[in-house]
Amino acid sequence: MASRTPLGALKQSVQAPRLARAQSSTTTSSFFPTQSFSQPRQQLPPNSLWFTARPSLNATLQSLQTTLTASRAHLFKAGLLPSINSSLGVDAEFSSTLPHPRARRWMATKEMATYLRNGTDLKSSQYKKLTSVLSNLEGLLPYAELADQLPSPSSPSLVVDPVAASKGALEGQDAFRGDSVSLRAQLEDILARFQQPQAVSSTGIAVDRVVGKDRRLGKKDKEGRVMAVGRRKESGARVWIIPAQGAADAAEQIPGRVLVNSKPLPTYFPLHTHSAAAIQALTLTSSLGSFNVFAIVKGGGIAAQADAVAMGVARALVEWERCEVEAGRIEEATETWRDLLKKAKLIERDPRMVERKKTGQLKARKKFTWVKR
Q1: Do residues 242 and 258 touch, judged by C-beta distance below 8 A?
Q2: What are the Low complexity biased-composition ranges (predicted)?
Q3: Rounded alpha-carbon distances, angstroms, from residue 195 to 53, 104, 131
């Protein structure tokens, strides 16, 4: 025991400076408060599609698909649809009594991408997929109006602002839902957000957009000339037509002429393929020689200019027939020139600008270099 006493005293003498340094460190550290390293709360993405290539577009499409399914399920429970996935076309159950409008004009591709805050332009396939869902929702409007009048269960509460809901937080999705009183009112609210805004004239007056057969394709002046515009690729043509002045005797009647940039048609378009394409509308309507045609065409190549002139002539003929029918000088036929030329694809502009690349080739026409070995 006596031998352990000096060893215990030695341990105490060694530990005493350590305790003093520890106490001094605690007293000095009290003057310098320690910095808190509490990490901020990590913000969660608004939806599960946040990490996709186009989160806003995908979330909006998902919301619209959910809205379409919920609306069809409600109409099915009300007894208005034979099934949830039933067709709403001409073979629908109430197609003879309920109208199917589907005549709204949606935003253009660039306007739609800006509204969706997509960051990039929409592809044609993406725009077509989005507008097809909107058209299906529009086809439900007459059924929804009838369902609101029936003593059916309350309509579902739909997300009336899918774009804002795709940007909002997950816990705040209920703020973007509409009132479950009227299904038609909710669908109208959804469709109005994607609809093209109303046109405004130069004087600031709202003008209704004319679509379908009521849309005018040309303009008639006081002299009886009808002017229309045609385009193809980089070419643009302005075309004027006027009926040829017929003589009293049919044998002395002078046939109408076709001038392109103040030159006869065979002179400006030496190839028969181009000249025949330019007057294709006159040939289809059996009015070749009945009109004097004057065209001014610029830009592009010869083939594109011929197609631009053909489109301008077709639109001018359609507008001339419409003016004559409205004036009562001719009777409206069962198949109008508009229907005939629309089947020939001469009324609407061809959106193709360049020839597509072919598989197994370097470009549209260029082939890979042939290597013997």
Answers
A1: no
A2: 23-40
A3: 25, 7, 10
Question: What is each CA distance from 182 to 57, 156, 174, 199, 279, in whole angstroms?
Answer: 27, 9, 17, 29, 54
* Mean pLDDT, rounded, of the chain: 81
Vertex 122 angle, CA 65 and 109, to 5°: 95
Q: How far apart are CA 366 and CA 373, in angstroms?
A: 21
Per-residue model confidence as pLDDT tens digits over 15-36: 666 655 555 555 555 555 555 5
Helix (H, G, I), strand (E, B) or coil at 172: helix
Q: For position 254, what pLDDT does the model report?
A: 75
Distance, C-alpha 236 to centroid of its chain: 24
Check: CB of residue 182 under 8 Å from CB of residue 190.
no
Token reading at 306? 């011929």
pTM here is 0.56
Tell me how far CA of residue 336 lies from CA of 123, 277, 316, 331, 348, in angstroms: 35, 21, 14, 10, 16
Distances in Å between the Cα of 242 and the Cα atoms of 143, 172, 222, 249, 304 are 48, 64, 12, 20, 24
The DSSP secondary structure of 241-259, one letter per residue, reads EEE----SSGGGPPPP-EE
| Alpha-carbon gap, residue 329 to 112, rounded angstroms | 44
Q: How far is the C-alpha of 134 from the C-alpha of 187, rounded, in Å?
A: 10
- Rounded CA separation 79/150 (Å): 10
Residues 338-363, mean pLDDT to the nearest whole number = 94
Q: Would you state the structure tokens that stand for residue 168, as one six-digit string?
A: 């909002």
Domains of the chain by start residue, with CATH:
55-194 (no CATH), 214-245+254-343 (3.30.230.10)
Beta bridge partners of 227: 219, 240
Report the b/e string of 171-199 with b at 16+ CB within 10 A: eeeeebebeeebbbbbbbebbeebeeeee
To 10 degrees, the CA torsion angle through 59, 62, 66, 71? 90
| pLDDT above 70 for 301 | yes
> At 89, is the pLDDT very low, low, confident or very high (cuts 50, 70, 90)?
low
